[in-house]
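To: structure desk
From: M.T.
Subject: fold request, one chain
Message: Could you run this one when you get a chance? Sequence is below, nothing fancy, just the single chain.
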Amino acid sequence: MTEPTPAPPLLHVVLYEPEKAGNVGNVARTCAVLGAELHLIRPFGFHLHDREFRRAVMDYLEGVTLHEHASWTAFQGTLGAGARVFAFSTHATGLHTRAGFRRGDYLLFGPESRGLPAWLRDALPRVKLPQPGGGRSLNLSVAVGVAAFEAGRQIEGW
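Reply: Done. Structure tokens follow.
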């Protein structure tokens, strides 16, 4: 008897060179709650053993499929044919609410202090979160939460 092929995860959250352990821990909790997979692209600004990371992720880490990638190139090598990667950037013009997310899409976020590098964000479809009150950007874990739940709403119709 052949095992059925598992459905792809709801979505993938990708953090490019994340810097703050607490933010990554919070993102991991969001992924656990949503059933999303988390991809971390090196280098990191912290260690996964850091107390701040463990405190933020709490006991949710067991519920997260976590992938570590040595570089952007290594991450790209894991993408299947037709994979869709959306770069979240304040430099985008299209809103995340109009992206038309599908099951298995990848949501890419840059490091907290500088965002995605231009060479990377310019190579991908870009979307942004509205910031009608101004400011430079949202906190990374907040941005991931807003984006991931909107993607889930679009995919599952919550």
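Reply (cont.): The beta strands are 11-16, 37-41, 66-69, 85-88, 105-109, 126-127. Let me know if you need anything else for the meeting.
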